[in-house]
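Why predict the complex rather than its parts? Because the way molecules touch one another can change local conformation, and only a joint prediction can capture that. The input here totals 475 residues.
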Amino acid sequence: MCLAIPGQIVEIHPGVTDLATVDVSGVRRRVNIGLLEGQDVSLGDWVLIHVGFAMNKIGEEQAREQMRLLALLGEDDVALEEFNGIFDRGSGDPP
Amino acid sequence: MKYVDEFRDPQLITKAADEIRRLAEPGRTYRLMEVCGGHTHAIYRFGLKDLLPPAIELVHGPGCPVCVLPMGRIDDGLAMAEDPRVILTAFGDMMRVPGTKGSLLEYKARGCDVRIVYSPLDALRLAQANPDRHVVFFAIGFETTAPSTALTLKRAKALGVGNFSVFSNHVTIIPAIRAILDSPDMRIDAFVGPGHVSTVIGCRPYEWIATREHKPIVVTGFEPLDLLQSIAMLLRQLREGRAEVENQYNRVVPWEGNRAALEAMADVFERRPFFEWRGMGFISQSALRLSDRYAEWDSEKRFAVPGVQVTDPKAAQCGEVLKGVLRPPDCKLFGTECTPEHPVGALMVSSEGSCAAYYTYVHRKVVAEARWVSSRQATA
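Output of the joint prediction:
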């Protein structure tokens, strides 16, 4: 459960506290970016996502590496399923 | 060796393995502990032991949050789940971990309202959607996960959600390393430092391991090459008589950690005076409870729980395996009474547990080979 999945920020929601939409292999979910406070966060940035939170910014190359690593570990399906699972019931935003 | 073919840089892998062989001094043995359960999983999955000389022993550390949780805490969570007002939420990893009278999954089958969540924020949202119920989030994890729980509690407080609470079982890695170094039956030469925990705490908290305990530690990524490079870095330090904190994973881990995450944890949590770890006993200052500012959201203050210390099933030797004193197959129950399908101990449940990893990647292969050999003998 400690392995994070990489995603790309595709939307930042200025009206809502710490909310951004992240794309992971074509699946989009809203995640909390409060742990990136104090860092510049822009569209197109790559982040490591763990339990619905962006943990830190990474480079595009690291994002590719991490995805490949998850596949090698046989954990890509589980990690995607977990990412899929975040806020997939109903249409609401994360609180 | 199957996965070696899939490595991105087979030449670099070979080079790193060669360097490890060159650095290992003849006649000397090395006990290196990988603290993180993610590393344990990767080591087995990639068959890295096959690439190392026999003088290097990798000892699996206590870095699997599901595995180190003692059974008494699981029973406490299960007691909350029995309250008909409660919706108990937990990560999927927790569902099959056995308590004294069953797992969360079994309690769910008996009619308790137990639900898997993928984020603590999911649990908070469930509370908002069910104002007549009380949602408990069964929080586990090291410093990788604790900041997410902290930010969720800050949201709960800011939004005034009163029907939500957290049963905190968050633990911290540094006191566990200290306990290992203080343990008389442990002899560790150097540490492979955790990857994602270090993105939060940074590298400074490890400095005492080098300066006071004179043990090298290298913070490491999860790729096969990362692990081999860090083992080479540890051997080089040992060979040169150095003991330092080095960061092999600096493409992801900043030396200073994540300030926002550390501030959120400091606001929401405080250290427990002591906390029980499976197999390691009580370790002082090793776990986090909610601070008084968040007392209203603390499940342990809202529910009367047994709070009883429960010893593991006698025959299971989870503790010895967790401390690295025994290898998984040396446990009497391994592969017979305790399997991933029917786990007796938590190390067989989580993919990061050394028993589950050993069973999946080593035991099955050995058993299949033995069957193949005996079937050949039968037909011969």
